[in-house]
Design brief:
The protein is of the alpha/beta class and about 300 residues long. The chain contains nine helices and nine strands. The strands form two sheets. The chain has a six-stranded mixed sheet with strand order 2-3-1-4-5-6, sandwiched between helices. Strands 7-8-9 form a three-stranded mixed sheet. It binds guanosine-5'-triphosphate.
């Protein structure tokens, strides 16, 4: 039993929402202090619910990254929206991201209105990407966020301007989010940055590298599955090597050609880029074996979706 002298410990779950490209993934990484979630300049590329974990002496903040809420166009889109809603009803805090360099629009309003329906969860508003806005813009953006709250009936527990890129106000945001958490024990062991299986993290990094430089319509067609990941046997203890075999799935032959590139050049650079990132994340040298495969129209096929982990 505590005597009242000790500092209380808080723990809980926070989820970032906001329209595509609002900066949710970048913010998750900035708060955790390490890259655990893929970021991309293509909207709606975040698919897996990966948690980043912030460890502090006084608190544990578990960040749940969700795909952007959007009107579903395919079966995949519907699954994503279901995933988002289930996640949001279970977290302690929903942090709604409004990019400071853009006016609040119908998309933001749609999301904030959906959030207003989730009564139990506390809501925090975050003005993201403040490095892209002038102080006048930031000022009126904050007023707009407050006005939106009044209009749709959301009581913002906090309204915080931040820049994940510049690292501005990230520590303050961390404090404010911790302040919204209930008292509770540490939920994850020290040092865990995420509870996503390493296979999922590796698959996300490969997917991110594969998407780099692709045109708008292709990102939705790319899925990555790590088929096998294991330490190679008969290696000296101080020279481990992790073997990873992964498949990159696309929906059509033409897309396969694009991903592979002339003489396999694109696939090779996808492999090199993602291998380095996986090595940095897991701290082990990696041998990465990548194959591109066609899974016809996988986004519309429930069986294939399950196989690809959705
Ligand atoms: N200048 C600047 N750019 C940022 C900042 N945060 C994110 N970005 C950029 O904005 C783009 C989108 O960022 P993400 O973090 O992937 O956005 P998201 O909300 O997770 O996107 P979805 O997965 O599409 O929902 C990327 O190109 C980021 O580099 C920031 O603080 N400043």
């Amino acid at each position: 039993m505590t005597t009242g002298q000790e500092q209380s410990h808080r723990s809980g779950f926070v989820s970032f929402v906001g329209r595509p490209n609002a900066g949710k993934s970048t913010l998750t990484n900035a708060l955790v202090g390490q890259k655990v979630v893929i970021t991309s300049d293509k909207p709606q590329t975040t698919r897996t619910v990966v948690r980043g974990i912030v460890h502090r002496d006084d608190a544990q903040l578990i960040l749940v990254d969700t795909p952007g809420l959007h009107r579903p166009r395919t079966l995949l889109g519907e699954r994503l929206n279901d995933l988002v809603k289930t996640t949001l009803a279970e977290v302690d805090v929903v942090a709604v991201c409004f990019p400071a360099n853009e006016k609040i629009g119908p998309g933001d309003k749609f999301i904030a209105t959906e959030m207003a329906k989730i009564k139990r969860t506390k809501k925090v508003a975050i003005a993201t990407k403040t490095d892209l806005a002038t102080s006048e813009q930031i000022g009126s953006h904050l007023l707009d966020i407050a006005a939106l709250g009044t209009e749709i009936g959301v009581d913002w527990a906090e309204i915080v301007p931040v820049s994940a890129k510049a690292g501005d106000q990230i520590a303050l945001l961390q404090d404010l989010l911790v302040g919204q958490l209930p008292e509770g024990p540490q939920l994850y062991p020290d040092g865990d940055l995420t509870d996503a299986p390493e296979e999922i993290l590796a698959a996300e990094l490969i997917r991110e590298a594969a998407l780099d430089g692709l045109r708008d319509e292709l990102p939705h067609s790319v899925a990555v599955v790590v088929e096998e990941m294991r330490l190679r046997e008969d290696r000296p203890d101080d020279k481990p090597l992790l073997d990873i075999h992964a498949n990159v799935y696309v929906e059509r032959d033409s897309q396969k050609g694009i991903l592979i590139g002339p003489k396999g050049s694109r696939l090779k650079s996808i492999g090199t880029t993602s291998r380095k990132q996986i090595e940095a994340l897991l701290g082990t040298p990696v041998y990465l074996d990548l194959h591109v495969k066609v899974a016809k129209d996988w986004q519309r096929d429930p069986r294939q979706l399950r196989k690809l982990g959705f």
